[in-house]
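This entry is passed on directly below:
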Amino acid sequence: MSNIHPACKPVSGDFHLLNVQIKEHVAKSFTALLTCNIKVPYMKAVNLEGPPRAARREAIKDGMELGRKFLAEGEAGARSVCLKLKKTKWLPQQLVNVDEKDLYTNHPLPGFRDSQELFAKEEELVPPGEGWIRHSPTMLVHAHSPVYFVQKGEKAGKYCRQGARPGEWVDIDPPHAPQEYDIKVRAASASCVRRGTKFDRAVTLNDVTKIARLSLKLALSFVDRPATGFALFQGLRTSEAAQWCAENFHKKLLPRLAEKIHVYKTEELQEVLEATLKELDTEVMKSAFPFSGCSALLALLLGNRFVVAGVGDCRVLLLEGEGKGAGSTRLLDCEGRLDDEEEQLRFWQAGGMVVDGLLHHQQADKLDDAKRILCAPNVFDVLLAPDDELDVKQVRGAYRKLALKVHPDKQKDKDSVEMKAYQYAFARLEESKERLEGMIEEDLEACKQMRRVLHAEVHTRSGAASLLGVDWTPASDSILEEIEQDAAKAAKELKKKFAKLQAFAPDFGQAETICDEAVRTMARPCTVESLPRTEALLKEGLQMSRALGVRDLRSPRSVVVMEPKSASHFVSTSATIRFALLCGATAALKDDQLVQSAASHCRRPKASALAWNALVDAPSSAAVCISISPSGKAEAPAAKRQKTAQGADTVRARHILLRHQQVRQADPMLRRDPGRSLQEAEELALKTLETLTKTPNQFPKLCRCDGKSRRKCFRANHGNSCTLFCNLTAEFYSHRDINRT
């Protein structure tokens, strides 16, 4: 057919969508429906409906006529046929060769496709999982990966990424199909504050996929199940850093977890947790509380893989078995304890020392000559006191005095370790003399400027302002940007004053870092009221040499470092195990103490965590227990246990309910508040549980109220909000008959 209507001519590589359907009505009548989507000369949709017919073959014949006329004369011709068909009655001989398949498979002209076939194919090419959005007419993209899915064309159904060059696409494997493991997870945290402030924070994410979807609008549909997360933070100096990390760690962790929709290697999951800790550390260092710090511990359970990462005073213990025969394995033991010899050597060389069990900056008056020379923060402090004049004569005189004291040949009755210290000290003394003389001869004024910078206390606002020559008064956030610009400009000018010494001074980089630190101090938001309290933290020592935050001990010299460690464990689907997440005081407990104290609470994570806290006497302590056991979903359900005959004077009891101050008083007729706190209620619950474990017959006595009324607790508190003892018991004596009297 050469007489094709111009509006129906297809463009090369494109297809018009021509479709004819037969619609069956309730009254057993049939209608031909023609739909066509035209791409040229402009986008247009045409919908035409034929007259109702009593037989389906007649409606099919109408549809074929509509299609032919539309292809030949366009929309106007098809509409004229619609009017003629209302008056047309088809003869039987005209319907002999009518076949409904011709409406879909034998279009008269090339370039037209059946939309039904196309739509069916598109329905089949929908990628699995959530988070896919439209990228182009033929592709979808997973925004957080980013992975592209091709819906149409030669590579329909393929997954790809953008290559290094523009327009280049690289084929990749399909996303990971998540697997559901037959395990049951129970987790609980417990904290104890004996005096002072609560420094610990514990967070449990029962379902990270749900939290990511509802809280962050992220799709985590490609991770194995169960998918749970845990975090434990122990504050250092103050609780501000721990509080901020507890509130924001999931905002750093879950987006990183959503960056990959393929299967994660175990090493990659460990890197995700370590990167999350580093990002939290960066944010705390930039915050309004940079001198606060914390020990941090993160854990992820994805399917049968348990991954942990931590920094500071934290430890993870794996408990296997039940009762007194349970075994323990250290899964993660972070570095940073002050009694470790290697760690002592590291922070001593970085300029730190332990005073009264806490880590501080070194104090020169408490060191001998050799150690003072070795730990001097710069070449000026090796030879000169802060008040000494800076000239070559003073440098040479100080060198002669110190050389007589630390020369190795002058030392007697020294062991090999001390002798090496004197050898290193004398070598640094000679090097510092040569460097300092060369710097003074090069530019004396530049040396004085560098010395002033290296001795500045830039972590206080007054010290930073004095170094840069700007106003130190705390300002509002509205002009904070202007203050930062002025401080940056002053720091740039100050660096130019000692720039000549770059080739001579070994501490040139340290001086530049101090100038940059002064700018950050001036740009930090603060108020007149909060400034003294914030800067008072600079005088407090630290219990660990590795932590998150504590900017004053991290820059310009790394007395404290932030180097997270990670570990992993594959969980068996046929055994019951527990993980102990310990931070702060609980991390110092011995393994056998942890095993014995929670030996009878294998399936009670809350009781286990409370038992571990009861072993320490620190001002604040915390622990998290994760119990993993087979869920039993794959097994056939057990037969229902038959109820036993009971008398009229017995009831069935399961829990002992303990009221405390935080319970809302729902019924004014209930007995008065006993005055105990939540922590006291938990300690009493643990004590009661351990008593019942040893002597179950004590249940009737222990469940009575301790007020004037002798009503039972389970009767007095029925239907009201209470601290349920089931948090500890977990199916303990679930069907025990208790006499009312």
